[in-house]
Predict the structure.
Amino acid sequence: MFTSFVIVILLIGAAAIVGTHIAGKQVERTIETLDQLPQEEQESYLKSHHFSDPKKNLGVLTWIYVVTFAAAILAAAIYMIYFR
């Protein structure tokens, strides 16, 4: 029973790592595009694309970890209720 709990927690952690990696790749693509643009066009690019508001990326990462934390708490509660 404990083994299944550990497996569930590891799967939840892996999902959080994958989500963080996806968000990081999104930011990396934007930075690569910015590096290729001339200085004059960089500001207009930032304003016209998703990266204009850094809080948006922070929001994505926050939701990834909120969902992960909630799933871990739920898994712990299920383990405590059904397997003790």
